[in-house]
Amino acid sequence: MSEETGRWSRASVYPDMWVDPEDDPRNSDGVSPDGEAATLHEYLADYRLTLLMKCEGLTPQQLARRSVPPSTLSLLGLLRHLAEVERDWRGWISPDERVPPLYGGADGDFEGAVADEAVVGGAFADLEREQSATDALLAAHGDLGERVGEDGIAVRELLVHRIEEYARHCGHADLLRECIDGRVGQ
User: Fold this and answer.
1) Prediction pTM value
2) Within-domain flag for 98
3) Exposure string for 150-178, b = 16+ CB within 10 A, e = fewer
């Protein structure tokens, strides 16, 4: 990250935003969702979309660019990491859903995040597939207080943990994107 980039935003109404409100797919003009489950699912969907927005328009080289040595953190690595954790969460819900890691052993999600079009396309596809599979498995458990898996984790706790994981990594994505091309905004 030795190159100096100027900070900028595509937003003009609120310059600290990523895009103007009318262009933000996370905005809805309606009221907030009714109920706890709907609220949790909306937050999760918004953070997932935020991560994708932070990656939008970047080349494989930019997506694979690491933050600061010795860190292996990159936007591409985050995509791969979140696909990996989505896969792992299914094992929390149902022990029968335990599957081997997507990217090998420790830190494989970040170490294998290289500037290659096939790796980038694979990461986006893996993330979408793993999110869908976890969502489908969790949909069978509509009671937020239900305890699932070997450890008896509450469905509510799992949903909150998923939101927390995406929110934390969206914070990383904010900084990574700003270092790549200077674009800022929440």
Assistant:
1) 0.91
2) yes
3) eeebebeebbeebbebbeebbebbbebbb
CA dihedral 148, 153, 85, 43 (to 10 degrees): 100
- Are 156 and 145 contacting, i.e. CB atoms less than 8 angstroms apart? yes
Beta strand spans in the chain (E) = 147-148, 153-154
For residues 146-160, average pLDDT: 97
Q: Is 70 helix (H, G, I), strand (E, B) or coil?
A: coil
**Rounded CA gap, 72 and 59, in Å?**
18
What backbone phi and psi angles, to 5 degrees, belong to 10? Answer: -80, -15
Residue 17 domain flag? no
- The rounded distance, in Å, linking the Cα atoms of 172 and 154 is 27
Cβ–Cβ under 8 Å, residues 54 and 170: yes
Closest to 164 (Cα-Cα) out of 75, 53, 43: 43
Total structural domains within the chain: 1
Domain that residue 85 falls in:
43-181
Count of all residues that appear for the chain in the document: 186
Q: Residue 1 pLDDT > 50, yes or no?
A: no
CATH number of the CATH domain containing 113: 1.20.120.450
3-class state of residue 107 by DSSP: coil
